[in-house]
Design brief:
Length: about 260
């Protein structure tokens, strides 16, 4: 398959590592990049069966892909993951930090373990992945692109999610800091973030909650994982954009309407 990225990466077929890509939004991002001509490193931890199935589907479409397992809360696993991906494909051009956890943690119930788990998965893992992938990208004349998946609600938090909001808020600041640090090593490395709004309703959501999510946007529709995937590709393919946190939320960040239901964050 010929690369859709020749303008940025030359004549080689670029490689994209998408963490948490066995299912949900990460999988849609990986599918989108595969369709754009990337070789795909699919990552999973507990969802390796889904990851292997996904890889088989990509290969049936003529796309080079491989599944890799790693617990991203462990630095040793992250180092091993990056080494294995680089050994298998020979390079890493794109990293999408999509893996995350999301839970409601009311202040009166929040434990030290709750906060630690949120930061280990949502913040520390992205930092460590970017650091170790960045070391590989430094060796490449073409550099590379890193995209972190954050959350729109860091701008307008809702009740009961302080631990989650803190971890995603730190990720937004980290995006800017990584952009500076990695560009100092190789100006061809760029780091950006997508801040999605509601793109997947909780399973079993009522029609009332669905309508509430729609009403909370300016565009009056639900978001889709494809909206996030398109934004990720834009940031990957825009060589003059770095250190940016891009809301993809249908205008929810700026909408002045009332939206107080924490169950449809």
């Amino acid at each position: 398959m010929s690369s859709a990225k020749q303008r940025t990466f030359g004549d080689i077929v670029p490689v994209a590592l998408v963490t948490g890509s066995a299912k949900r939004v990460g999988r849609v991002v990986a599918e989108h990049l595969a369709a754009a001509g990337y070789r795909i490193a699919v990552h999973a931890n507990h969802s390796m069966e889904e990851a292997e199935t996904f890889v088989s589907q990509l290969r049936e479409q003529g796309i080079e892909a491989q599944a890799f397992q790693a617990d991203l809360t462990k630095l040793a696993d992250i180092k091993r993951l990056i080494d294995y991906v680089h050994f298998y494909f020979g390079r890493i051009d794109v990293l999408v930090n999509s893996a995350s956890i999301f839970d409601s943690t009311p202040l009166e119930e929040m434990s030290e373990n709750d906060l630690d788990a949120m930061f280990r998965m949502n913040t520390y893992s992205a930092l460590h992945c970017a650091n170790w992938v960045g070391r590989r990208m430094q060796e490449q004349p073409t550099g590379g692109a890193i995209v972190n998946i954050g959350d729109w609600s860091i701008v307008r938090p809702t009740v009961g999610f302080s631990a989650y909001i803190a971890s995603k808020g730190a990720l937004a600041s980290l995006t800017k800091s990584l952009a500076i640090d990695l560009a100092a090593k190789n100006p061809g490395i760029r780091v950006n973030a997508v801040l999605p709004g509601q793109v997947l309703l909780p399973e079993g959501s009522s029609d009332t909650k669905r309508q509430a999510a729609i009403d909370a946007t300016l565009v009056k529709r639900l978001g889709e994982p494809e909206d996030v995937a398109q934004a990720v590709r834009f940031l990957i393919e825009s060589p003059f954009v770095t250190g940016v946190c891009l809301p993809v939320d249908g205008g929810r960040t700026i909408f002045a309407g009332s939206f107080d239901d924490p169950s449809v964050l």
